[in-house]
C-alpha cells in the first residue's frame, strides 16, 4: 500500500468512528478526529448560531470555518459539498438554493454517508443527495455545479493538486468555490508528520499557505480571494497526548503557525481546456 493510500485509510477509519460519536466528543478534539481532550475545546470549528438551515444533529463539530456563509449561493444553484460528513453544510446550502436547487454531498466514509442520509430522511429533505466517493475522483459529471464548498477536508487529502483539478472540472464555466481549510505558516516539527491521529485531526496533513494558494492558481482558478482567516491554537492538554513538554515548548518557540482560511475562487467563464470525464486525465 502506498503512503497516499495508507493516509486515506487512516482518515477513513478515524472518521468512520467519528460518525458514531457524540458531538461533544468531537468538538473536544483536534478537528474532531481523536478523543484527545475532555474539556469541551472547540479548537477549529466555528459556531453556526443564527445561520438559516442549520441542523444541530448533523453538526459533528468537524469544521474549521463557515464556507456556506461566504459561498454566494443563489436560488436554483447546484452545489457540491466535498467531505460532507453527516450533512451539516449540505443542509445549510439547501436553504440557499431553494426548492429548485440541488445540493450533493460527497464523502468516502460509508458511516458518514449513512448518517447523512438518515438525517435527510428524518428531515424530509428532497433537494439533497449524498454520494459515496473519493473527492480526488468525484462521482460528478463535468461542468455540473454552480458552487463547490468544503469545510476542513482538503487538508486530509494527500493529492491536493488532483482535488483542485477535480473541482475545476465539475464546476460550470463561471462557477466558483468557497472552501475553509487548514494551512501552515512555517514548518511543523517532524514528529507531527509521524503521528497518525494528528494527520486525521487536520493538522499534519496541512501544507504551507503559499503552496496551497499556488495549487489553486495552477488548477486554473481566477479571482482567488481570502474571505476569512483565523489562527488555530491547540491547548497543551491536547498536545500532551502526543508530545513531551520539551517538544511542546520547541513548537511554541518556533515560527510555525496553524491557520484556518476560507478561500473563494472562480472558474473562467470560457473554459478552453476541454476537460471531460475524470479518467481522461485532461485536468
Describe this structure in words.
The relative contact order is 0.16. The protein has helices at residues 3-18, 23-27, 67-70, 88-97, 110-123, 160-170, 190-194, 196-200, 209-218, 236-239, 245-252; strands at 78-82, 102-107, 128-132, 145-151, 171-185, 222-232, 257-266. The protein contains eleven helices and seven strands. The chain has 283 residues and is of the alpha/beta class. The protein is 33% helix and 21% strand. It has a seven-stranded mixed sheet with strand order 3-2-1-4-5-7-6, sandwiched between helices. The protein has a single domain, classed as Rossmann fold, CATH 3.40.50.
Quick recap:
The chain has 283 residues and is of the alpha/beta class.
What is the element layout, followed by pairings?
Layout lengths: L2 H16 L4 H5 L39 H4 L7 E5 L5 H10 L4 E6 L2 H14 L4 E5 L12 E7 L8 H11 E15 L4 H5 L1 H5 L8 H10 L3 E11 L3 H4 L5 H8 L4 E10 L17
Parallel strand pairs: 1-2, 1-4, 2-3, 4-5
Antiparallel strand pairs: 5-7, 6-7
Structural class: alpha/beta
β-strand percent reads: 15-25%
> Ranges with pLDDT <50 over ≥5 residues?
25-42
Largest sheet: 7 strands, mixed
| Number of helices, where a helix is a run of at least 4 consecutive DSSP H or I residues | 11
**Rg, Å, rounded:** 18 Å
**Mind telling me the CATH class?**
Alpha Beta
Query: Which descriptor suits the 3D outline?
Result: globular
How many β strands by DSSP?
7
Descriptors for this entry?
283 residues; alpha/beta; seven-stranded mixed beta sheet; 7 strands
Amino acid at each position: 500500500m502506498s503512503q497516499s493510500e495508507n493516509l486515506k485509510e487512516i482518515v477513513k477509519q478515524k472518521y468512520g468512528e467519528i460518525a458514531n460519536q457524540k458531538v461533544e466528543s468531537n468538538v473536544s478534539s483536534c478537528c474532531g478526529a481523536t478523543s484527545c481532550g475532555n474539556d469541551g475545546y472547540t479548537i477549529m470549528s466555528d459556531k453556526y448560531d443564527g445561520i438559516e438551515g442549520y441542523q444541530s444533529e448533523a453538526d459533528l463539530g468537524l469544521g474549521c470555518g463557515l464556507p456556506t456563509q461566504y459561498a454566494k449561493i443563489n436560488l436554483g444553484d447546484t452545489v457540491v459539498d466535498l467531505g460532507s460528513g453527516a450533512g451539516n453544510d449540505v443542509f445549510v446550502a439547501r436553504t440557499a438554493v431553494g426548492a429548485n436547487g440541488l445540493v450533493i454531498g460527497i464523502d468516502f466514509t460509508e458511516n458518514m454517508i449513512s448518517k447523512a442520509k438518515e438525517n435527510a430522511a428524518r428531515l424530509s429533505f428532497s433537494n439533497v443527495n449524498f454520494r459515496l466517493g473519493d473527492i480526488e475522483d468525484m462521482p460528478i459529471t463535468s461542468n455540473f455545479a454552480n458552487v463547490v464548498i468544503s469545510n476542513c477536508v482538503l487538508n486530509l487529502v494527500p493529492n491536493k493538486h488532483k482535488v483542485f483539478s477535480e473541482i475545476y472540472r465539475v464546476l460550470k464555466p463561471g462557477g466558483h468555490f468557497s472552501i475553509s481549510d487548514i494551512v501552515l505558516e512555517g514548518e511543523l516539527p517532524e514528529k507531527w508528520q509521524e503521528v497518525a491521529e494528528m494527520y486525521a485531526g487536520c493538522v499534519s496533513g496541512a501544507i504551507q499557505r503559499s503552496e496551497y494558494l499556488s495549487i489553486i492558481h495552477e488548477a486554473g482558478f481566477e479571482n482567488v480571494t481570502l474571505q476569512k482567516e483565523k489562527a488555530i491554537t491547540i491547548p497543551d492538554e491536547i498536545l500532551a497526548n502526543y508530545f513531551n513538554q520539551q517538544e511542546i515548548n520547541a513548537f511554541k518557540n518556533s515560527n510555525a503557525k496553524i491557520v484556518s482560511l476560507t478561500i473563494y475562487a472562480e472558474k473562467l467563464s470560457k473554459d478552453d481546456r476541454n476537460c471531460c470525464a475524470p479518467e481522461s486525465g485532461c485536468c
